Amino acid sequence: MRVAPSILSADFGRLKEEILTVQEAEWLHIDVMDGHFVPNITIGPLVVKALRPHSKQVFDTHLMISEPEKYFDPFIKAGSDQITFHVETVNDVDKAIDTLHKKNVKAGLSIKPATPVSTIAPYLEKVDLVLVMSVEPGFGGQTFMPESLEKMRALKKIKDEKGYAFDIVVDGGINDETAKRCKEAGADVMVAGSFIFKSKDRKARIDEVRG
Ligand code: DX5
Ligand code: ZN
Asked: What domains sit in the chain, N to C, each tagged with a CATH number?
């Protein structure tokens, strides 16, 4: 079980110090919002570039933006190791995945709570990760939606039956208890924001999420 602390819930006035407290987690989850696809605005490539020298973690970049392809290059140049975009935002999903792969970056596909797994079925063979949103994207600190567990189970079933390699990642409302349920449902990686960053003991929280 890998853990991806989401810096959305970190203290933005001291981001470097904040990420240094979560280095035992394998990934660092970076939420990018544009005020258009979601009703909030957060981080751009400049912030990713500023953080890059301070962490060896996988920079897991979650684009919650319209026209994400326009911003692949700036985030890759800034140091993103993998880029996840929302299937709801792209017309030619195949092409977007291929573009990322050509640039040697891992490609992730995300689905909002209302988007069924069937929407992304055609891409599961070549995508590196699927990010299942277990809250409405836009804000940290929301309550986990249990309906998302069914999606993780469905993805796990496809993955096992077809022998696909993608990671099942869950994002939103993750704590020690919901992480356990997601793990049972087949999730490989847990994104957790407020549960980790709202505690002083980040290491303990990462361990609790890991289970
Ligand atoms: C929500 C973001 C999440 C968020 C999760 O749109 O994609 O990554 O940071 O925050 P918590 O863990 O507090 O629900
Ligand atoms: Zn996210």
From this structure: 2-210 (3.20.20.70)
